[in-house]
Amino acid sequence: MPQPRNRSSKxxxxxxxxxxxxxxxxxxxxxxxxSVDHSSAAAGTSAVPAAVVDxxxxxxxxxxxxVLAGGCFWGVQGVFQHVDGVISAVSGYTGGxxxxxxxxxxxxxxxxxxxxxKITYDPHKISYGRILQIYxxxxxxxxxxxRQGPDFGxxxxxxxxxxxxxxxxxxxxxxxxLTETKSFSSPIxxxxxxxxxxxxxxxxxxxxxxxxxxxxYIAINxxxxxxxxxRLFPELYRENPVLVSAKAIN
Length: 250
What we know:
two-stranded antiparallel sheet; alpha+beta
């Protein structure tokens, strides 16, 4: 079974989450009067602008990889598994050493790792810039420092881990673009961390959103992000998620 996630210091939220566990139903939202926490920046509004600077098409390249961190990897993975053009999305850890790429250790917040997702995508169907647009619009709030929703610590930071110089340049340009256009009311705190290795997470973390849609944490924090994807990017939304297979984790 998964270990408990770090929660916010708000006692009211913790108490209500406990009640959710007892009721064991998404219907508890109405019973308790608990509002759904949309951690995505654009929840209830519109998508942020598309990236002006994007990757150049490579006719002979069939797949590319993006590695992103934006809070709990359950939601990040769950969103991108519903994106058309994504071949696979694997939850894992990035930013620290291989020896500490393990859930309980990463949860200490002292390893340098962030819960992250490796997204393999078809560049002929979706671009890196478009991946970043979804990331900033529906996946998380890039103005929260070292936390997302009820989760806090450096392991939940907003971070982009570019796989090459082109991705790093696109990410830097896009953050500057969003800052200049005042797409967010607060400063973007997303870090760009190149030359970091991705390590896949334990099997029980894979496909967690799809396998546990009625789990209170998922219902409150992550399913709204999938709904935002469908609402904000209907042309990219895929009803059936692409789930992790044994070979996709390696």
